[in-house]
Design a protein that fits this description.
This protein has 547 residues and is α/β, with parallel strands linked by helices. It contains 18 helices and 22 strands.
Length: 547
């Protein structure tokens, strides 16, 4: 009897077609994904938009095997698959680059690349593997030192390594979760240009989660929008606009660049006129009148957490009626600068003056000079997590009338005011007595806004004030920052989001390696020039390190 040999069916190669049909996922009584049907064509870049909590992460985690859906199906190339684990997803050719780094810090670039593939032999032929890795890197538009460790890499280089880890495995579907959040504009264009080229050659399909309309319009072929777990828009990018996508995201008529559809906001304890807001919007990008600086930093030196100089002889001036933006890639001293100015970190050398007076950021000075701040991480350095919402709102004025009388704290007044601010700012909380730690990021930021924007303000210092917040919260906070400037106050805005700075500021300075290396009026700013300075490509002379 002759034996018939049947060759195994080869695994599919090239770009994958992905489809979800009525995909549903629940967490207890909460429906995070509600019967979402989405088709991603092979060899395309498909953008996925939505506010925080819209269901984006839940959808891609169902596709990548991290969540098991409660209903619906996932189809790869038209065939239904039960993707129970990330291992199954990898076997199908699905790879994912996460927003937060997943690198092994003690391993080299080469070791991280090999580790991503799994199934490593007990003994590795490093000569052969390094040759293979070298050939792979030759085909990539950016290079990394195979012997470098993640601890030695800049944030942009780490993001590139995360991408290289997936591309080395030749995925058929590549999911990118906010891949450009820590990159300079040039690096962002480089990375997105690379993945688009991979799709054009038919090597893979890309599903891109982003919050930047510019990236969607420039690099995506199709776009899907989710809101509250449901599908609100799906179609070709060429047939839509940022305004239409913004409406689909939040269900309101708005301008995504300015948030013009937002309800007018009156800072607690003030009476901002609508014409002042209009004047402030028209003022964006204009050169404000010069006078004595509202805030002056001279030759500031600040040590980082490891003892080295994170801020090195930095000087800047901020004037009333302007928003000064500080741009830079994460880790170049921005956090230490913010903390040193607002009194949360010691100053090694240099001076800070506010309204012409020496400023050491004491509570008494902040009250006398009307200086406020919006921290990057409210739970870490902007509130007391175990204290109530009302108590956190009262941290600036709990010991002055009417919050206190004759040395006796009047907690009833705190609660009454807190209820009013909660209603005015639409803060989602169980009540003014709920602990701050129980609030979402957006709601907690609004608690800080209520406190910091109350009454008259001379100087507002903010760092990444919308980081991690959803689209509606971003729009709301940007509107309020503009209103502070419209009232004639000075705003120092430290942000890693260049789009945010180009949208809101009058001037931009670029910070690199603890120094100011470039300054420009915003209306004259060029994205590629800012990116070059952010990446450390050019540094002004005369900025030698402190001994």
């Amino acid at each position: 009897m002759s034996v018939i040999h049947i060759d195994p069916i080869p695994a599919p190669r090239g770009a994958m077609a992905l489809e979800t049909v009525s995909l549903t996922k629940r967490f207890g009584s909460f429906t995070a994904l509600d019967a979402v049907s989405m088709a991603v064509k092979p060899g395309t870049v498909h953008a996925l938009l939505g506010e925080n909590g819209a269901g984006k992460s839940t959808l891609v985690k169902c596709v990548a095997g991290f969540h098991t859906p409660d209903g619906g199906t996932v189809l790869c190339d038209g065939r239904e698959h039960e993707i129970a684990t990330p291992v199954v997803a990898r076997a199908l050719g699905i790879g994912m680059v996460y927003q937060h780094f997943t690198l092994a810090p003690g391993m080299t670039v080469a070791e991280n690349l090999l580790l991503a593939g799994g199934n490593l032999p007990a003994r590795i032929d490093w000569r052969a593997q390094r040759a293979k890795l070298g050939e792979f890197l030759e085909r990539m538009p950016f290079k990394l030192d195979l012997d470098a460790r993640p601890s030695e890499l800049a944030a942009g280089e780490k993001q590139k390594l995360e991408l290289l880890k997936q591309l080395y495995l030749k995925p058929r579907l590549l999911i990118l979760d906010e891949p450009t959040s820590v990159l300079t504009p040039q690096e962002a264009d480089e990375v997105l240009g690379l993945v688009r080229e991979f799709t054009r050659t038919g090597q893979c399909t890309v599903l891109l989660i982003t919050h930047k309309f510019r990236e969607v319009m420039a690099y995506a072929d199709d776009v899907t929008v989710l809101r509250r777990g449901a599908l609100t828009h799906c179609g070709a990018v060429a047939t839509t606009t940022p305004e239409a996508l913004a409406r689909a995201m939040i269900g309101a008529q708005i301008d995504p660049a300015r948030g013009d559809g937002a309800a007018p906001f009156e800072a607690p304890g003030t009476a901002q006129a609508s014409d002042a807001r209009a004047d402030g919007a028209a003022h964006a990008g204009a050169t404000p009148p010069r006078s004595a600086p509202a805030l002056a930093v001279r030759d500031l030196v600040v040590r980082g957490d490891r003892g080295s100089f994170a801020v090195n002889r930095l000087s800047l001036q901020l004037h009333a009626g302007e928003i000064l933006g500080v741009a830079g890639v994460s880790g170049n001293g921005q956090r230490e600068l913010m903390e040193a100015i607002v009194g949360q970190r010691p100053r090694h050398a240099g001076e800070v003056h506010a309204l012409g007076r020496p400023y050491s950021a004491t509570r008494a000075q902040n009250r006398a000079l009307s200086i406020r701040s919006l921290p990057e991480e409210p739970l870490r350095n902007g509130c007391v997590p175990d204290m109530s919402v009302a108590e956190n709102m009262a941290l600036r004025d709990f010991d002055v009338a009417p919050m206190s009388r004759w040395g006796i704290l009047h907690s009833g007044a705190w609660r009454v005011r807190a209820r009013r601010w909660i209603a005015d700012l639409q803060i989602k909380t169980r009540g003014e007595g709920a602990p701050a730690a129980s609030l979402s990021g957006g709601s907690l930021q609004r608690v800080i806004l209520a406190r910091e924007l109350a009454g008259h303000i001379n100087v507002l210092i903010a760092m990444n004030p919308v980081f991690g917040l959803d689209f509606a919260a971003v729009r709301d906070i940007h509107e309020r920052i503009l209103q502070v400037r419209a009232a004639g106050s000075a705003v120092l805005l430290i942000s890693e989001d260049l789009d945010e700075l180009l949208e809101l500021t009058d001037r931009i300075v670029v910070m690199s390696e603890g120094r100011i290396v470039h300054e420009t009026a915003t209306h004259d700013a060029q994205r590629h020039v800012l990116g070059a300075f952010m990446g450390g490509g050019r540094v002004e002379a005369g900025t030698e390190a402190v001994a």
